[in-house]
Amino acid sequence: MRDFEILFDHGESSDRLDPVYPPYGKLGFPQPPPDRPWIYSNFVQTLDGVVSLLGKDASGAAISQSEEDRWLMDLLRAHADGILIGVGTLELETRLQRPRPRGPVFRIVERELRQLREKLHKKRECNIFVTGSGRLSLSNHAVFDGDKLDTIVITSEQGFHSLRSQRVTHPHVEIIIAGRDSIDLAEAMRILHKRFEMRYVLCEGGPMVHGAMLRAGLIDEKFLTISPFEAGQMVPTDERIAGAPPLENVRPSTMTGEGFSGETMARWTWLSCRKCGDHQFHRFRRKVAEHP
User: Fold this and answer.
1) Cα separation of 129 and 206, whole Å?
2) What are the CA-CA distances from residue 277 to residues 10, 24, 49, 190, 226 (Å)?
3) Residue 134 and residue 160: Cα distance in Å, rounded?
4) Residue-level pLDDT, tens digit, the chain, 292 residues
5) Which residues in 28-49 are b (16+ Cβ under 10 Å) and which e?
6) Residues near 215 by beta carbon (within 8 Å), at least 6 away in sequence
7) pTM check: above 0.70
C-alpha cells in the first residue's frame, strides 16, 4: 500500500502515537455530544457522484478500485464503537454472494488495524442495522450468528412485531425499538449512547440511511473518497433489471430520499484533503451552527 499525500489537514491529532498512523497522518475526533455519539460517514463515489453501479457491480469496491480506500475504511472502523448500516445494503451484498453465500460481516480485515482498535480500548466490533419494517430473516445472514461480532437491530414498534419471534433462535442479537410506526433516529442514537455506551459511530450507508441521518441532523462528519472514473446516472441498457420501475435503474448518490431546499442544504467545512495516485480522500465537518 502507498502512503497518502497530505495536501492539507485541519483535523485533530490522533489520541495516541502508533505506527499505524504515518501512512495516513493524524486522525483524531472531537468529544461527542452529551446525549448521543459523534457520527461520521464514509463513502466512495465517482467523479460524477455515483456510489453504486447497481447490477452485477453494485458494491462499493467496483467504484473504489483502491487498496488505500479499503485500508482507510478499516482505519475508520477501528475508531468506531459501532457501524451503522441499512438492511438494504446487507440484502444487496447477500444477493451478490460476496464474500460468502450468507452475506458479509462488516468488520476490520487488516490485522494491524484490529490491534489498533484494542489499543484504543474499544469493545467487540458491532454492526448496527436499521429496518423500520422489521422484515428481516436473521438466519439468512452470517452477520447475525454472533461468532465474529455483536449485532444490534434498530426498528420501530411495528417492526419489532416482525422480529420478536426470532429472538428465540437469536437471543444474542440486541433489538432497539425507537419510534412507533417509523424509526426515530435521534432516539435510537440516544439509546446507543446511554445503553451501549457508544461514543463514536460510523455510518456506512447505504444512501437511504445516510440521507435519513443527514435530514435528522445526525451526521457530524463525512469522509469521502473520489475515484477517477465517470459512470453515468443510468445503468447500461444490457444490465438493467427487466420490468423494473425506471428509478431502480438510476444509480444513487450518497443521499437518497427527500432532499433539501437551497436554504436548508447541509453545509460543510472542508477539513482535510489527501491524494493517492489519482484518488482523492476528503474529510468534511458539518458546520457547528447546523448541529441539532
Assistant:
1) 11
2) 22, 14, 19, 40, 11
3) 6
4) 899 999 999 999 998 889 999 999 999 999 999 999 999 999 999 999 999 998 778 888 899 999 999 999 999 999 999 999 999 889 888 887 666 789 999 999 999 999 999 999 999 999 999 999 999 999 999 999 999 999 999 999 999 999 999 989 999 999 999 998 899 999 999 999 999 999 999 999 889 999 999 999 999 999 999 999 999 999 888 888 777 777 788 999 999 888 999 998 999 999 999 999 999 999 999 997 644 4
5) ebeebbeebbbbbbbbbbbeee
6) 257, 258, 260
7) yes
Q: How many residues does the chain have?
A: 292
